[in-house]
Amino acid sequence: MYLSGESILVILFVGLIAGWLAGHFVQGTGYGLIGDIVIGIVGAFIASWLFPKLGIQIAASSLVREILYATIGAILLLVVLRLVRRGGRW
Q1: Residue 75: which domain range?
Q2: Which of 3, 54, 74, 90 has its CA 20 to 30 A from that of 10?
Q3: Count of domains in the chain?
């Protein structure tokens, strides 16, 4: 698989925005630049795996749709991590 420099920048940008948004929705603050990027990219992988199985599709332009998918996936990731850390309590 070949990724151009532009593709890598788009992935990092989407991950950064999605991680930052998810951090603000779930905890109230972000996780720093690297943390936001990692959370957003992992969230994108979760959403790209889960949404087709559930039949969920968002009608939007390509970049906006990817940011929404990654943000929702990152929110799911942060909620699960919070529940695991706190023993099932919110």
Answers
A1: 11-85
A2: 54
A3: 1
Rg (CA), the chain: 13
pTM of the model: 0.82
pLDDT in tens, the chain (90 residues): 676 778 888 888 899 899 899 988 887 666 788 888 899 999 988 888 888 888 888 777 788 888 898 999 999 998 888 888 777 665
Q: Is 76 exposed, middle or buried (0-12, 13-18, 19+ CB in 10 A)?
A: middle
DSSP SS3 for 37: helix
Residues, the chain: 90
Domain membership flag for residue 18: yes
What is the distance, to the nearest Å, from the Cα of residue 39 to the centroid of all Cα atoms in its chain?
6
